[in-house]
Amino acid sequence: MENKLDQIKELLLKKSAAKQHAFKRTLQVFNMLKVEAKKLAEQLSKEINPIESRVEIKYYEKGDYEMHLKFSGDTLVLMMHTNIFDFPPDHFIHSNPYIIADPMREFCGMIQIYNFLADSIKYNREGDLGYLVARIFINKDQHVFIEGKRPLAFTYDDIGKCCINEESIHTILTESMYYCLNFDLMAPPMESMSYISLEQKNLMSYSSGMPTGKLLGFRNQSSTDITD
Description:
With 228 residues, the protein is an alpha+beta fold. 38% of the residues lie in helices and 20% in strands.
């Protein structure tokens, strides 16, 4: 029994402590993203609005763990998960020499970046889909790797070499915005909209449009929607 208690103490001192440090680092990174997103919104508004006042660029927060960066018809939604994650045994992170040297480095906090249509949020169209742009994983040393769209996933694919700083924060946000601006809303095939129910008609009247996702102009949850 005493041996089991010793093991519990060791896990608390090592694993639990590593997770607490990872949470703290992830929150620091999320706050850095907030600062940079606000700065980008102010800079772009200042440069674009005198030329085209109808292009709205706006930053706002939805609590401690969610923020939005709206630029014209797109919104980046960034959400920080409050839990810390490990990875499956066959995940590539386990073969990284940096992780092998200290397995406590594999525990990561997660920040997710989604692309929503601005109108989806404005009109609270709850059936609309946001598309995953990137998942940012941060460990106790503030090292990072990113899963998601190119070029982010290729630039930040080695947790042993990639650390977060002001330059990388700027890159993550600008590359995410650039991806969204080149990922356009497509009109759905006519056959998919050849009839609607009364419920759908009422929904259109209530929320200013059918439930919409960017890729096909209507709901589509296939995993291929977000794969390059």
